[in-house]
Amino acid sequence: MASSPSDAHMALLGTQFADLSAALMRDDDTGLDPQRVVRFATRSIPNTEHCGVTLLRPGHAPRTMTTTGELPQQVDELQYAVHEGPCLDASETDMVAITGDLDKDERWPVFGPRCAEETGVQSMLSVRLALAAEDQAAMNFYSRGRNAFTELDVGVASIFAPYAALAVEQTLREQDAANFHKALSSSRQIGTAIGIIMARKLVTSDEAFDILRRASQDLNRKLRDLAAEVQETGALPTTREKDPASSSEGG
User: Fold this and answer.
1) Whole-model pTM above 0.70?
2) Listed residue (195, 212, 215) closest to 204, CA to CA
3) Residues of 3-42 as b/e, b for ≥16 C-beta within 10 angstroms?
4) Dist. CA 226–CA 209, nearest whole Å
5) Which CATH number fits domain 179-237: 1.10.10.10, 3.30.43.10, 1.20.120.530, 3.40.50.970?
6) Is domain 29-174 classified as CATH 3.60.20.10?
7) How far is CA 154 from CA 45, 56, 249, in A?
8) Which among 160, 147, 148 is positioned nearest to 66, based on CA atoms?
9) Which residues in the chain show pLDDT less than 50?
């Protein structure tokens, strides 16, 4: 049975998406590269000057995860400072936030005029990224021209959004795993250091932890770093304060 023109178009489309996925992969083929995603997205939307990704995580300040230049970072920092703007709206509430006259847009009465005056950016397009759990994000496009973005641009941005979401998701999971292993290692080091202090000073675990904590404060060093040294050397570094156990002699 002969294939129809629509079958050929779908096959071509599938090949193009496969080629795009390959182009957005990291050099080691371990996943999508967020930086490549924003670069390719910028090239695919002629009227944009830059692209970036805004990330919102519970318990953390908003941050710009990746960009194609300094301009997005400048614009985003202003949004984070005044708590309003298209990047935040797209991340939190709207699927798409688009504007072509920031200095007059009533949705962002503080951010809009300041952004136009301080950065020259008049047009922005932000598309929400679908992330797991409570993480939120948006891919954002920036232009100094007025009314720079069209409905076609929204469509093209929406094609890149799933790639950006996957790249962000993978990066976050890798960061979370690294932080977990670091915290676990620190916990083990602190536990070992407490055991060493208990054995050397014949004190309880609570007293040993208090000794370690006070030494950390006195030496102005992080607790985990001090614990690592105790684990390595088997002794607590000398502090400016005398150990109460050795203070029985008169001055």
Assistant:
1) no
2) 195
3) eeeeeeeeeeeeeeeeeeeeebeeeeeebbbbbbbbbbbb
4) 12
5) 1.10.10.10
6) no
7) 9, 22, 78
8) 160
9) 9-10, 12-13, 240-251
